[in-house]
Design goal:
The protein is of the alpha+beta class. The protein has 13 helices and 17 strands. Helix 3 packs across helix 5 and helix 12 (409-418) packs across helix 13.
Length: 458
């Protein structure tokens, strides 16, 4: 579960059009004493779920959850209080899955009618999608409103019987006449699942909920070992060198609030990404504990040009202080530091040819001489023009020194001459065939301009 790629693949399998971009838990525990003087801890867990479309990166939805007080729990130790508080996440996950992971399908056939009203219909969803008897669906038709497609509700269905992996029989509970009319007009009838049946979760949805809970637990355990950084981070403006960012911070002591706000900025830049900074992508793909510990303990202020506080820290009901800062972050210097410590890849425009070659598969190149007409062939030019032959050889050696794979035109020419398909009477056709059969991805044409300078003695 710790591998981001693995998580993305699993989530895309369960919901191909929706992907979790971030799960950001903030955990804290409050030390308390009961009437008998015994110490206990009250857990508090806050987390934000952001959903994106994996095909284009667009944000589909975001929701923040907080579990504390009546929806929190207590324990004898701080960790126990946090883990027990996670039990309340189940209810939130049910509602969240209902909202963002609806089953979508179509009505494929009307099975029975009564007085021009559809009574029962077949849908193209079944056991493969976890449909169960009693599952409810809303029926829509597509409408073109001012050039934009919109959905209009026309009816409702209840699953009567699940027939196969991709077929179920449903009764029409509402809108039989509208469904019948749309079917006769050959309109597409789209169905979306409604809130699931209480206590009877579909297997796909159960897997999704379990995955969400597992991800949250993994992240929570990880963050419990760290300071509680805020997710309330917003970019005001940014360029390649400076980013102006506003963030809030929370701490037990008033004097630590603004430092926590600044650290929250860097935590978001490194691990979560901030909209408006580097296209919203985190700068650090994989966390390095040594670098992070050093950075947050003593180095983060090196990358703060200046900052302003917004008001004074305010004491919350949780007895923690909260405050806000607006800071100018030396983004360019920060990126150079990450590159130097090998936590970030150097931009392509700043890479050497060798670094580019290691990351990108460079094309294979064949260098050939310039032809002034179709009657001459590459072989004749290379044989008879000494200067151009030297120029071709020099260019080829230049590519080799840069680490680019090259194909020798002379060697390929000899091989082509022996091939049965060689057309000996057509020089231009022969050269085209040479290029096609060379195995090179690109061919470079070399021309040579000769300049003769004459000097006359006195």
């Amino acid at each position: 579960m710790g591998d981001a790629v693995c998580r993305s693949e699993v989530m895309t399998t369960l919901a191909p059009n929706i992907l979790f971009r971030e799960i950001l838990p903030v955990c804290r525990e409050l030390k308390k004493t009961d009437s008998k003087g015994k110490t206990y801890y009250q857990g508090s867990v806050s987390y934000t779920l952001k959903i994106v479309d994996p095909s284009n990166g667009t944000l589909k939805g975001t929701q923040t959850f907080t579990h504390e007080g009546l929806t929190g729990n207590i324990g004898d130790t701080p960790d126990e209080a946090i883990i027990k508080t996670l039990d309340y996440v189940v209810i939130s996950m049910d509602d969240f899955v209902d909202e963002y992971f609806k089953m979508k399908g179509t009505i494929v056939q009307i099975e029975s009618t009564k007085k021009d009203k559809a009574q029962t219909v077949y849908i193209d969803l079944g056991t493969k999608r976890g449909v169960q008897k009693g599952q409810k669906f809303i029926v829509y038709i597509e409408m073109d409103i001012a050039g934009e497609l919109s959905l209009k509700e026309v009816g409702r269905l209840n699953v009567k019987e699940v027939l196969s992996g991709t077929r179920s029989l449903c009764t029409v509970s509402k809108g039989g006449e509208e469904i019948m009319k749309a079917s006769k007009e050959e309109k597409k009838l789209i169905i979306l699942s409604r809130k699931k049946i209480p206590f009877r979760r579909t297997w796909t949805m159960m897997k999704l909920r379990i995955l969400l809970l597992n991800l949250l637990v993994v992240y929570t355990i990880h963050f419990m070992a760290q300071e509680s950084y805020s997710n309330d981070v917003t970019c005001v403006k940014a360029d390649d060198n400076i980013a102006v960012i506003t963030a809030s911070g929370t701490a037990e002591k008033k004097k630590d609030v603004y430092n926590m706000a600044l650290k929250s900025i860097f935590n978001a830049i490194f691990l979560n990404g901030i909209d408006g900074v580097e296209n919203g992508q985190p700068l650090v793909g994989k966390e390095d504990s040594y670098y992070m510990n050093q950075f947050f303990s003593s180095r983060y202020m090196l990358f703060v040009k200046n900052y302003e506080t917004v008001g004074d820290p305010v004491r919350q009901s949780s007895k923690l202080y909260n405050g806000t800062v607006t800071a100018q972050i030396l983004l360019g210097a920060l990126k150079k530091d990450l590159i130097r410590n090998k936590l970030m890849t150097r931009p392509q425009e700043e890479m050497s040819m060798e670094e580019t070659r290691q990351q990108i598969a460079l094309p294979t190149i064949m260098v050939v001489p310039y032809k002034s007409n179709d009657r001459s062939s590459y072989a004749d030019i290379l044989k008879n023009d000494f200067d151009l032959r030297i120029a071709v050889s020099t260019v080829k050696e230049g590519f080799v020194k840069l680490g680019v794979k090259t194909v020798a035109a002379e060697g390929k020419q000899s091989g082509t001459l022996r091939a049965s398909e060689w057309e000996s009477k057509n020089a231009d056709s022969n050269d085209k065939q040479l290029l096609m059969n060379s195995g090179a991805d690109v061919y470079v044409i070399v021309d040579l301009q000769k300049r003769h300078i004459c000097s006359f003695g006195k």
